[in-house]
Amino acid sequence: MTYTNQITEAERLIGQNGAPWADVEAEAVARMRLQNRFKTGLDIAKYTAKIMREDMAAYDADPANYTQSLGAWHGFIGQQQMISIKKHFGSTKRKYLYLSGWMVAALRSAFGPLPDQSMHEKTTVPMLIEELYTFLKQADARELGLMFSELDAAREAGDEVKAKDLQNQIDNFQTHVVPIIADIDAGFGNAEATYLLAKKMIEAGACAIQIENQVSDEKQCGHQDGKVTVPHEDFHAKIRAVRYAFLELGVDDGIIVARTDSLGAGLTKQIAFTKEAGDLADQYNSFLDVEEVDANNVGHGDVLISRDGKLVKPKRLPSNLFQFRAGTGEDRCVLDSITALQNGADLLWIETEKPHIGQIGGMVSRIREVMPNAKLVYNNSPSFNWTLNFRQQVYDAWAEAGKDVSAFDRAKLMSVDYDGTELAAEADERIRTFQKDAAREAGIFHHLITLPTYHTAALSTDNLSKRYFGEEAMLGYVLNVQREEIRQGIACVKHQNMSGSDIGDDHKEYFAGEAALKASGKDNTMNQFAA
């Protein structure tokens, strides 16, 4: 509905209610409605699910249409990302937010900093989703409020051309509300627990939920050791639980991202229940590391299974976990991925130990032999040493091609001594094009960085602390923070405005008219910053 139509509708409603509503201004109502487009989290989930589905179709048509996100651990961080994207690129198209379970554990738990092992309060996840969307909606209200102020000024100046242009901008306003891919870890319990948490996440606004095939009470970060997977049927039950949650709440096109940690997981807690030879459970068990045993020589407490007519003993650790055969990780990833898509997942996530297009693409090619439209969400993880990894990839490629690499020590390629070399330049170029190349060659629809803003917060705080508490003192803040905010046009240099002060002033004027006590008068120090 256009701005003019919103005003007309509000006038009609106010007129119906007569004198008691006489002091309610139709245009103010229209403005407040436009500033609060999304009334509930479910409105957001339905809106953003449609965006993701359209983006997935666009990627299928052309892999150049891949999507991206950065992890955000606070509503303000997510808000500033989207404000920045709109400022620099004019549109949030194909730009999302990622909600990282790692950052929730490390930064948002009442227990304090925790490792990524599902020990944090699971309710923190939907609370962060709600917080992120509260800040994104406030970004809408703020930007529209500035447009309304400009519109009032244009009208007062009698500039009809500018007023018309501003009304057109308002009618075509692009919201800061974008899809969030939200991490539910391994579901925080059984399938019922997964369903209950998924509902809370969807009600908060999540249109895409990522779930992994680890054991819930043994969950580890994807880049830690000791990962333990579950049989496929257990994982598929949780995928169905998330789908039921979406359907119950009317988000019929909600997205499920199925993550496999099998590449780095050498253990399982369960031997899968097999009904017949060759079924999915039997395929899962076929990866177990076993040894043949003599039925007459079975040890006390040994666990035995029958395989191809032979009695075998799976290798069991003192932790009561069973071991997979070494070298089976890729085969297990491929089977996990195919069966997850066959059982209701929409996108895949393969957690790898390095960012290598050939490795990822090789698995995707095998998956696509069965599921041609398979697409990945990929973690461009800060756990990878990107500089070292890519310098070593270039080194290996050069060595294989017969190029002289005698000037380089492969194990020490991270050294600053190599920064100006041709090898380092080629590695940096491969990093720059990694997302585009992997989207084209390895089926990656969505590239994300899980915890970048954890690192940027630490880096910027370190730099400020070093300068402010050192010889630069106040100049350390002014030179490297405030002056840069002003010159780069960072909106929150006017921090009162960013926190909602001007929105509140507008409301005060709507509610109290000339009697409103506003904060944005001539004595507000924010006026020292030019628009």
TrEMBL record:
| Record bears the keyword Lyase | yes
According to its UniProt record, the EC number is 4.1.3.1
What keywords are annotated for this sequence in UniProt? Lyase
One molecular function GO term is:
isocitrate lyase activity
Can the keyword Glycoprotein be found in this entry's annotation? no
What Pfam families does the record tag this protein with? Answer: ICL
Q: Which InterPro entries match?
A: ICL/PEPM, Isocitrate_lyase
The record ties this protein, via PANTHER family, to: BIFUNCTIONAL GLYOXYLATE CYCLE PROTEIN, ISOCITRATE LYASE/MALATE SYNTHASE
Q: Could you tell me what this protein is called?
A: Isocitrate lyase
